Amino acid sequence: MTPRTPGADLPEHPDRLWSAAEPKASYDVVIVGAGGHGLATAYYLAKNHGITNVAVLERGWLAGGNMARNTTIIRSNYLWDESAGIYEHALKLWEDLEEELDYPLLFSQRGVLNLAHSLQDVRDSKRRVEANKLNGVDAEWLDPKQVKEVCPIVDISPDVRYPVLGATFQPRAGIAKHDHVAWGFARAAAALGVEFIEHCEVTGLRVTGGRVTGVDTPRGTIAAGRVALCAAGHTSVVAATAGIGLPLQSHPLQALVSELLEPVHPTVVMSNAVHVYVSQAHKGELVMGAGIDAANSYRQRGAFHIIERQMAAALELFPVFARAHVLRTWGGVVDVSPDASPIVGLAPVEGLYLNCGWGTGGFKATPGVGWCFAHTIAHGEPHPLNAPFSLDRFVTGALVDEHGAAAVAH
Amino acid sequence: MMLLIPCPWCGPRDEAEFHYGGQAHVAYPENPAALSDEEWARYLFFRDNPKGAFAERWSHSAGCRRWFNALRDTATNEIHAVYRVGEPRPVTS
Amino acid sequence: MRRESGGRVDRSRTLRFRFDGQDYTGHPGDTLASALLAGGVRQVATSVKLGRPRGIFSAGSEEPNAVVQIEEPFPEPMLPATTVELYDGLVASSLPGQGRLATGPDPARYDAVHAHCDVLVVGAGPAGLAAARAAASTGARVILADEQPEPGGGLLGAWPADVVEGLLGAEWATATAAHLKALPEVRVLARTTVFGYYDDNYLVAVERRTNHLGAAAPAHVARERIWRIRARHVVLATGTHERPIAFAGNDLPGVMLAGSARTYLNRYGVLPGRRAVVFTADDSAYAAAFDLADAGVRVAAILDVRPSPGEALAREVAKRGIVLLAGHVVTAAQGDGQVASVQAGRHRPEADPAVAEHAFDADLLLVSGGWNPVVHLFSQSGGRLRFDETLGTLVPGDSRQAVEVAGAARGVDTLSGCLADGAAAGERALGGQAAAAAPPPVDVPTAGGQAFWLVPASDYAAHFVDMQRDVTVADLHRATGAGLRSVEHIKRYTTAGTAHDQGKTSGLLTTAAVAHALGERMGELGITTFRAPYLPVSFAALAGRDRGPLHDPVRVTALHDWHVANGALFENVGHWKRPWYYQRVLADGRLEDMETAVLRECRAAREGVAMMDASTLGKIDVIGPDAGEFLDRLYTNLMSSLAVGSIRYGVMCRPDGMVFDDGTVIRLAEDHFLLTTTTGNAAAVLDWMEEWLQTEWPSLRVYCTSVTEQWATVALVGPRSREVLAGLAPGLAVSTADFPFMTWREAEVAGIPARVCRISFSGELAFEINVTSWEVSRLWTAIMDSGMVTPYGTETMHVLRAEKGYPIVGQDTDGTVTPQDLGMSWVVSKKKADFIGKRSFSRADTVRAGRKQLVGLLPEDPDFLLPEGTQLVSTDVPATVGTVRGGAPPRTVPTLGHVTSSYRSAALGRTFALALVSGGQSRLGERLYAPVGDALVPVTVTSHVLYDPEGTRRDG
Ligand SMILES: Cc1cc2nc3c(=O)[nH]c(=O)nc-3n(C[C@H](O)[C@H](O)[C@H](O)COP(=O)(O)OP(=O)(O)OC[C@H]3O[C@@H](n4cnc5c(N)ncnc54)[C@H](O)[C@@H]3O)c2cc1C
Ligand SMILES: [Zn+2]
């Protein structure tokens, strides 16, 4: 028995990740919510725009919301040009992010398969592949045999209720370790001067003369030149304190993991018709999710029949999973917009910026949205990549409808 | 979740028997043509999303197939009241 | 090291099993763990990160260490050996932290049942049994569930010391459970773990029904069953888990929880070692020491961290000649692969940690840091936990749900106390008000210990906290050193508490070690959330029977068998199986390919007569005085003006103006309509109608009923369809004048009462014959018997309609398409003041020029079939588009739209496509390019109506 150094697999960190700060009386920018988006926004505000008098206020522990709960699927193979633009920008940033942040993110480009189970799925999938190619997004259409080559444990036999008729494949897509991403951004932003204040819930937005002036917290009022909302599932609650209604509904979304298993699943598989998505994380656990709970709720807890349904779907596609075990289930609260696309841009109140509506799929956007949102905050106007995701689109009707056609969640 | 929802017509039943309908008391506008684009957008896409008491619609889709309203706390999932369509939102303390 | 007698195993029968290639034996009543200990096996697993040997640490489901792989009868990964009941033929192997899945399918069955009860009691220990008995005594519906194969809980391990109501503890448990089982309203579930506690007292449990039978398990019995229980009231009598203590080498095989060692002795008749040292902060370990000593284990010493254990215990210790070192701690457990010696020293503070002053040879080191109530389910229920400073642990506080905790699970630590507490909880449960009536406070335990979690040391690299994840106190210090303060962060940073046991023994220990490091109080740091499931549950159990054909309902039409017998291949459409095309056997014996079959079917429809089973179309009967008004509000066009006897095509939009469904409406009577929907949308349309009726327009007197299953529909299509119909329906006047387009008639067809509609989805003369489902095969056969008719499937239907430019909702639309985009402004009423969707047509984006519009496309090469989904670009693009894996992405090119439908047309003698193209209607005649593979295929934009635009064929 020659033990390796305990903790040999833990991230190296000669210095602290971040230190708890006491709130100051005022900041140039206050970011509400220390999830991935809040942290990335803070980092790029400091890094790209030199704005460092920034506080990120978090009601719980840093990155303890959806950032800590998601299934970490990263891809950019969205249908519409607007979506491909921002998600592909994010994916490009992901590709250099470990270096940029000097932190191990376990970013693994193992590819994502989106399975097709009906002739219409096939049409929609091919349409998405072709659209992706025009947008410079790597995408392929695979027939069932090729699916099996990428992921040998997928059941492509005709016996399943909805046989696999093929899949789209994005080789550059993959997964990362969500916590490490949060800590990497926090550490890098802290090094540039950003402050993180945990257990500091924003209970109200202060607005004077149509302009935001600060936020209320149990630890006092904090003045702010600009306020950026990165509160994910809780955005409606915060916005409502300034009388702003948003087209968002908050729903629980659940996920689960199995015990550690020898590698069987080399990629990420998503299926909408047989509703489940699965990857095997680096330690060996199967990570799975499915759809949201139908009813609005702010409880980080979903209904059990959704888990049962998801396991049935998992076994349809992967019969070898039968005797794997569910170790842990959990839920997050996601903010779902009518067109399943985010809202990133200006708010009806001056100095207030919105980043919300990412619903079930905002983890993958983390660096991209941080980049664009920081630009939006710094310049007072949207970055071209997030301009299509304005709140105004619900008035004009120019939705970016990612669930109507070729609907793929997460 | 996995609520026990008291259908006003059938009695308490599992959540899985029901279909969710979002916010209650959002009437179809009297005269849509008279609305501005903003007002119409509000009707189409904007719904309350409170953390707390929420008047919402449910349909007992695997039972009597009737729609009804419930007053539920979205922070705890507790259902405070169920009532029929057309009845006003009950006052709770 | 099996004893000659004692315990609850059946020595009269021998079970053979194999572990890591070695053969062993055990007895019914054994677990794999007890049988391995009996066989002298110490190392059962290897740790995941450090590769350290791991032994058996506990005797229950809290086991962090002894995780094995089942190999036979069927592979199952990562089971604690302490939870595997032994069976003959079991083959298992040790695991290095990762399990292995079977490569083939699991032959076992799984199922689920729903149950409702007045009182669900979780845990059949003394408190649970007492609670169930009290509740059941009044005839209430009671479910008592326990994960063990037999009732008794803690009594099983303590036996034979405890006596209840004149019986030995375990016997009392058996008798009580038998009494309960005999009551008609009581269900006693053994081998059943309640693992999830959801809102409104919904709990889920898994019953392991045949696992313990091994290969002898009957195939027809579900191996595992999920119980979905809705309980009026819940009593959680879930007991306690013993606490470990962190010290150097505490992960070595041979280190074991004291109470577990006692269980191995008393329940399984197994000596877990020959020479033991006991390290405790609590009285209960003394009972273990005495039982073991009395059974012949040499107990070298008891190290009690407390200054003194009290006189009574000291006397008992002295009586047995055991060395007692009060105020002492273990400074290290040492040995090569298992405990060989234990170093001990006086308990000293952090700054001046204990040094080894004594060394004891031992192969067993029993540890007890006290007991933690099992509060997992209570916490899952939404119950608040309270940190009890006296007990040094979390105890249940209040819950919103109708639940209470009884016995040891809330800190009661005497047998009589647990019995009384359980009985009282059971009685209160029946009052129904139990949640409100707070249970009486627990007396502060008299025999309690001192909360003691870790032995201070200068180096914490071998103080294990989570043995499964190889997390040491030193690792926790790394995390706090990085500035992390929340236990949630620390858990994530170190992975402590994330293994198969979800931190049952390590969770609070982690908090304690962090609190110790930071100089904070445990109560303030708290613990990470308890999440379902309490124990790992197999995927297969959760999937239950919802697999294969039962995964989603399969709907077939009344003609399905005919289709199967006649070479149909099927397409899944919604839940339906629809014939896709019929494959004929060619003269040379080969089967037709799809293209040939579809061209043949199309030709038959355009040149002769063909028919399809259209029964899957949704059919909704709408009746009532306001039915016309109602349909006017739903459809974009006017329906109330439809004459009785006539038919109209209609489109429904969502309020956002996007097409939702289409179909025909026929007027049966002034107040009576029948509408058809697309196959996939039938249920959604009916729901849609009900929603509007009930929630918006309750004053409309209208009733909607699905009649999809009642009517079967045969579409008879082609220039000779009239001839076939006339032959079968002599009483029906079929001429164009007598039976005009878009009207319907009642008639007998092949002697069957039918409603015949003159509608066409192909542009050809066509009739839809509707009969009751049970008579449709007679109709179908009669038509086939004419010898003129070719059956066709959905593919041909799609080609025929596409040639006419008729869109398929969901294929040529995608939720972003208005009727105007489809070139169907004619279906949007200008007269009606309002209908659903109308207001949206005047929004900025819906009036925008450049919206995508439905057009036809003709590839310049008439033989080139555009793949559906192909994108379209204008002329100024580089010659190649497409991404090479790993290569530089090409520059992005704006898309103008995409191909929605594409076919080879027999009628046009060429390929064609439909597409949604930006500003399409103003691009007619324009050349666009379709990137296909590496090529850019030139196509010409045309009208979407490619075949018979004048409609000359409609009347035959
Ligand atoms: C189960 C699950 C699976 C998912 N899977 C994927 C996936 O595979 N791929 C993917 O791309 N996306 C996925 N997502 C979605 C993704 O997690 C979210 O879109 C994304 O994390 C949202 O951005 P965020 O990280 O900033 O959110 P969060 O981490 O939720 O951050 C919001 C923060 O705001 C804080 N906050 C809220 N209100 C206040 C207040 N008033 N004051 C102060 N702080 C406040 C919250 O506590 C929280 O920390 C998943 C989500 C869930 C729940
Ligand atoms: Zn009902």
List the helices and strands and how they pair.
The complex is a heterotrimer of chains A (410), B (93) and C (956).
Chain A: E1 26-32, H1 36-49, E2 54-57, E3 73-74, H2 81-101, E4 112-116, H3 119-134, E5 140-142, H4 144-150, E6 166-170, E7 174-175, H5 178-191, E8 195-197, E9 204-208, E10 211-217, E11 220-229, H6 235-240, E12 249-260, E13 268-271, E14 276-280, E15 285-292, H7 304-317, E16 325-336, E17 343-346, E18 352-356, H8 366-379, H9 393-396
Parallel strand pairs in A: 1-2, 1-11, 2-8, 4-13, 11-18
Antiparallel strand pairs in A: 3-7, 4-6, 5-6, 9-10, 10-11, 12-15, 12-16, 13-14, 14-15, 17-18
Chain B: E1 4-7, E2 11-14, E3 19-23, H1 37-45, E4 53-59, E5 67-73, E6 79-84
Antiparallel strand pairs in B: 1-2, 3-4, 4-5, 5-6
Chain C: E1 15-19, E2 22-26, H1 32-38, E3 45-46, E4 53-54, E5 67-72, E6 76-80, E7 90-94, E8 110-122, H2 126-136, E9 142-145, H3 154-158, E10 163-164, E11 167-168, H4 169-181, E12 186-189, E13 192-198, E14 202-208, E15 224-236, E16 240-242, E17 255-257, H5 258-268, E18 275-280, H6 284-294, E19 298-304, H7 311-319, E20 323-326, E21 328-334, E22 341-346, E23 358-361, E24 364-368, E25 371-373, H8 376-380, E26 385-388, E27 393-396, E28 403-405, H9 415-431, E29 464-466, E30 471-472, H10 473-481, H11 487-494, H12 507-518, H13 522-525, E31 537-538, H14 539-543, H15 560-565, E32 568-573, E33 576-582, H16 594-607, E34 610-613, E35 618-623, H17 627-634, E36 647-653, E37 659-669, E38 672-677, H18 682-696, E39 703-706, E40 711-717, H19 721-728, E41 744-749, E42 752-757, E43 766-772, H20 776-785, E44 790-791, H21 794-803, E45 852-859, E46 871-872, E47 897-905, E48 910-918, E49 927-932, E50 935-942
Parallel strand pairs in C: 1-7, 8-9, 8-15, 9-12, 15-28, 17-24, 18-19, 18-24, 19-20, 34-44
Antiparallel strand pairs in C: 1-2, 3-4, 5-6, 5-7, 10-11, 13-14, 14-15, 16-25, 21-22, 22-23, 26-27, 29-30, 32-33, 34-40, 35-38, 35-39, 36-37, 37-38, 40-43, 41-42, 42-43, 45-48, 45-50, 46-47, 47-48, 49-50
The structure holds flavin-adenine dinucleotide and zinc ion (ZN).
